[in-house]
Structures are given as structure tokens and as C-alpha cells.
Amino acid sequence: MGLASSAAMAKEEALDDGPTMRFVVVRSSAPGCEPNCPEWISAEGTIDAGTPTLLKRLLKTLGGRPLPIVVNSPGGNVDAALQLGRIVRKNKLDIAVGITEFSGCSPAMKNCRDNDRKGQPYSGVAFDSGAMCNSACPLMFAGGIRRVVGEWAYLGVHQITTTYRREKLLYRTTYRIENGKKKIIGTKIVSRKNAGSYKTYEMSKPVEKRLSAYLKEMGVEQGVLDVMKATPASDIRQIEAEDMLRMKLVTSLDSLDLLTDRTICQSRPAPANCREIPTNGKPAVVATVEAAPVSAQPAAAAAPPQGQDEEMRFALVRGSNPLCNPDCPEWISAEGAITAATPGKLRQLLDEAGGRRLPLVVSSPGGDVQGALAAGRLIRERKLDVAVARTDFLDCDPGAVGCSAKDGLHTGLTVDAGGKCGSACAVMIAGGVRRLVGPTARLSLHALEMGDKIKAYLDEMAIGPGLFPAMQSVLDASHGELSVSQMQTFGLTTGPQSVDALTGATICRSAARPDNCRVLPAADAEAKASAKL
Predict the structure, then answer these.
(1) Helix (H, G, I), strand (E, B), or coil: what is residue 508?
(2) Rounded to 5 degrees, what angle do the CA atoms 154, 155, 158 make?
(3) Shortest CA distance to 187 belongs to which of 380, 3, 346, 317?
(4) Strand 36-44 relative to strand 274-276, pairing
(5) What mean pLDDT is predicted for residues 25-39?
(6) How many CB atoms lie within 10 A of CB 110?
């Protein structure tokens, strides 16, 4: 006989969509890294029920190498996040919130084969600007041995959402009568039908008890759970760095550079995630920059490099990180070789921007000295800040054929890694009011012609007296790369901050709101506006 019944199934999960999390091994492609470079596991995407199995599968291929995890995730399934955290802790892995930018072949490319199956990692760089670990992701994050969240990364929590799914079951029961009583022989389900579902947005006592025990197991204070309970499921509460340290959710206030920076493999002993791959090529020689000049003839002005480096082009960019909307930072991207035409093009763009004081994000190999001097004076005249970094365009590259910016603004993110400023570029950025070069960007000097004019210009810009002799002491054939401390000592940079101080997703929330922040009207603002007679 057939009987109808209904059943309910509960599943704790976050209201997150997007691609599911994938894991790949990455080797740093930062310049000057080889032959001994750091490697890490990139973990990006939404956590679902099958994610722990994927991580276990990858770890088996590593032969016990404890590579740190660089995670960027909006959250996902809570049970899976707890499993991931325990896998991370069992394997004694470090973890950091960050985004991996791949060089060349990347997992997202349709025609890109899985390098890990060949025993070769992908290559790329990791950065924390715009990275996030939200919702259920912090539970996975808690499993790390060393746990770091950089200044420009975002870690947020909220209430657990529990989804109850109903099913209508039709089953057949077989029985027989023995001694006047019904004896059931067997029951078989013959059909299942979805009977709807409903959600609850408050943490149940069993779930709270389970999460509390997990955090205690990981050595994390219960304050994290208190913040989760106090934040509605429809919202995300960012935990500030000092609070994360107090709650023991992070183990230090370091950024992910602690685990992935190209320089970590130079320490002795080198970290466990460093791996040396011998090559037949000779390592590049970088000249040591001294403060005192040497007797050498100044080299000719650096011409725009042949081939890959095109003439400098400028573009207006608006930050595309969703954390900033609707009030997002904007900047001017300046990439390419400096020419005599560069100052004129910059002035034209600044005039088109209506006199707004937008920072300049520069990546340039150098170029024409006269052009650099004129551009630097224009930058100082307009009281602009500058930073050395790249702009990653999310709509289209301004240099591409057919690329046009919507309403005159491209969308993108700034990235330190790969940003460069060489030769005459250092002269140009000296004009900035604030001058920033992050730890993974590169700035190099060499001797230039027109030494008297350059010296007078640097004095005019109130740059320290040590920069000019250091510049003229390095021959053209051996560019001298400056360290962060050297740049500050010479007075070329105004502080240790990176480009994120000018373009980061959260700068528009500060009390002293920067000039380059702007709220754009909603697309339907005109339709919603009240009628005017």
C-alpha cells in the first residue's frame, strides 16, 4: 500500500554564488626571484561540499611539502569550511588572504592545461589589495598555523543561514497478517518530490556549540563567534586588524608577503615553501647603489625601449572592487615609455578631468629626460600624488583596438607586483606631492645626461641631496635597483606605503575623505528622480 510523507533536511550555508573553489600550485614569477622562488597554493572561489576533497587530492601530489595557502573566497558551505580548516591544521599549513595573478597560462583559461598534472606549478604573484575571506571562509582560515590578513585585504563574518529542504516521499510497505496482527515485511521508497524549502537566519544552539568547539580547537578566541552572531545574515562585518590579533584569528599583523614575497628565499634557512630550480643561464647582476659618485661619464638619455614598451599613454580609471561601491577611488594610469609628447598628453587629460586632483599610477621603463622633467613639474604644479604600480583593466586595455571607456572611465585595480619605474621615470615621479613605491614594485636608477638640469630639478622638488650622486654613480649598462629603505633615505619616496594608500577599496571610508573619491549616480537615478516642471 502507498503512504505519503514529508521530510526536512537542514544544511548550514552562506548565501554566496560564483565559481566553486579551485586549488592550484603557484610559483612566484617576481623579477629577480629565480632560481630559488617561493611557491604557494592558490585557493579561489566559493566553498561547497566537494571542496575538501579537492584540497586533499592536491595535497597528495605535493609529497608532504607544506605550501602556504593564499585564499580569496566569498564564503560558502559551513560544514565544508570546517573540514577545510581541519585539513589545513592537520597538514600544518600557513594561510593568508590574497589574490593570485597568474603570468601566462592560468586555470581560468579554457585552453590552459593543468600544469600541476605535469609536475609544474603555474607562475604568478600574490597581492592582498581587494582580496576577501568572508562568511564561512574565516572558519577555513582559522585552521592555519600562521594566519595573516594584510592591510588591504578584507575578512568579514555574519550569521549562519540554515536552509531546510522538504521532500515528499511516496513509499510502499509490504506486510502480512500473523495471528491477527500486521507484520511489516519491508518498506521501499518509490518516488521523491521537492516540497519546497525555507531558511532561518539565526544560529541554532547545536550549530553555535559546534562552531564554539571548533574555534577552541584551533586556538581562536570566542569573540569571533560573538561578532558572527551579532551581524545579520544580510550584512558582512569586517573585523579590524587589531581585533583579529586580539581574538587570535591572525597570528601577526604581517601581510601575505611574509609567505610569498620573492625575497623570503634569500634568508637562511630558507622557508619550506622555497624551491630552487637550477638553470643554465647566469643570474642577473644588479649594481649596488652608493651615495657617493664615481668617476664615470654620464650615459646618454635613455630612449624608449625597442619592441615591447610603447609610448606612455594615460587613462582615467575607477576602482572596480565591489567593497568600495558606490564611493570608489579614481586615478590616472600612466604606462609606457616617456617621450617629448608625454607632458602635453598628461596636461590634456588633466584638463579633461576638470581639474580634479587624481593620483598618478605609473609604470615606465624611462625614456626622454626632457619629457620627464616637464611631466614632473606639471605633476607638482597640479599637486598630484604618484605611486609606482600597474593598473589591471577589467573592461578592456586602453591600448587595444576598439577599446573605449564607458563615460570616459575605465575600470580596474592597481597592483604593486610588476610595477616598474626605471631611468628617467624616477625624475618624473619626483614631482609628486606624495610619492609611493610599494615593496613589490621596482625602481631603478642610472646616470643620465643633462646632469646640471636634473640636479637643479631635484633641489626644486626638495628631494634629498643623496639621490643625484647615487643616480650618476650607476652606468647605463648596470641599472641600480633601490630598496624601500634607500628610497626613503634619499627622500625620493614620502613613506613606506604602497599604491593602496591612494587607490585601495576602503580609502573613501576614512574620515579625511581623499579628493579622488567619487560617488557615481545609479544607472536608474534619472528615472527615479522627481518630475520637474
Answers:
(1) helix
(2) 130
(3) 3
(4) antiparallel
(5) 91
(6) 4
Is there a contact between 507 and 321 (Cβ–Cβ < 8 Å)? no
Q: CA–CA separation, 119 vs 113, rounded Å? A: 12
Three-state secondary structure along 279-303? CCCCCCCCCCCCCCCCCCCCCCCCC
- Distance from the first to the final alpha carbon of the chain: 73
Query: What burial letters (b/e) apply to 266-300, b meaning 16+ CB within 10 Å?
Result: eeeeebebbbeeeeeeeeeeebebeeeeeeeebbe
**Range 169-193 average pLDDT:** 83
CB 394 within 8 A of CB 320: yes
pLDDT-based confidence at 281, cuts 50/70/90?
Answer: very low
Answer for the pair 93, 68: CB distance below 8 angstroms, yes or no.
Answer: yes
Half-sphere exposure of 199 (CA within 13 A, CB side): 11
Q: Is 243 helix (H, G, I), strand (E, B) or coil?
A: helix
Could you tell me which of 435, 405, 429, 445 has the C-alpha nearest to residue 346?
429
Q: Residue 199: which pLDDT band, with cuts at 50, 70 and 90? A: low
Amino acid at 429: I
User: How is 403-429 classified by DSSP, letter by letter?
Assistant: ---BTTBEEEEEESTT-EEETTHHHHH
**Going by C-beta distance under 8 Å and a sequence separation of 6 or more, which residues neighbour residue 385?**
359, 360, 432, 433, 434, 435, 436, 502
DSSP secondary structure letter of residue 395: S
Cβ-based neighbours of 16, under 8 Å, separated by 6 or more: 46, 74, 75, 76, 134, 135, 136
| C-alpha–C-alpha distance, residues 249 and 413, integer Å | 27
Task: Report in angstroms the alpha-carbon separations of 165 from 8, 49, 208.
Answer: 5, 16, 21
Look at residues 448, 452, 471 and name the one whose alpha carbon lies nearest to residue 300: 448
Residue corresponding to grid cell 560564483: 18
Residue 364: which of 463, 455, 442, 298 has the closest Cα?
442
User: 416 falls in which pLDDT band (50, 70, 90)?
Assistant: confident
pLDDT at 195: 65
CB distance 84 to 57 below 8 Å: no
48, with CB counted inside 10 A (0-12, 13-18, 19+), is middle
Q: How many residues does the chain have?
A: 533
Look up residue 64 and give its three cell numbers: 608532504
pTM of the model: 0.51
* CA–CA separation, 221 and 245 (whole Å): 10
